[in-house]
Amino acid sequence: VAPAADVVDPAYFGNLNYLTNLMYLPYRQLRLAAARLAPALFDLPAAFDPRRYRGSNDETTRSFQAADGHIVDRDHRVAKASLEAQVADYERGVRPALLAAAGADIEFGDDRIYTSRMVALARAAGARVVFLFLPYYTGPPTVQERAFYERFGPVIDASFVSSHDEWYSDYAHLNHNGAIVETDWLAPQIAALMPEA
Question: Model pTM?
Fold first, then answer.
């Protein structure tokens, strides 16, 4: 767990999840302690098992077995009707912004404060920050809060993929063919941002 000061820091004024997160912490700590004492009850190995570790170069543009054991299929095309149903389910849970643009720091506080902190850490390490906009299937072609992200670095807009059902394995993830198309398109965009060697 993080240092106590980080755990109790709400990160920004207006963090509506702060009390819920703080109340969840004791439960989480008890669960971690129980998992340490009886890992099998939580489907965890008692010791490191290299067969369960996919390594640091994990290839997820191909089908793979998730940590919970189910197979994530990235190699086959999904029926358009299935994608449309997934999008409808997702969009039912999306709500529009409640506050005017001036209130975005409060309403989108999680995204804004943690993005700002990650950018600061990246810059402190000498890394350049670039954002990739990759929408869900049929998702809006505009980057929400684009001006906020552009304060930190360029935004590469890959919204062209959103109209291609043949490139998605579910409403939010590209299949292998979609990943190849997107990568082939993205590589020269990134190369153009790299300094001359």
Answer: 0.75
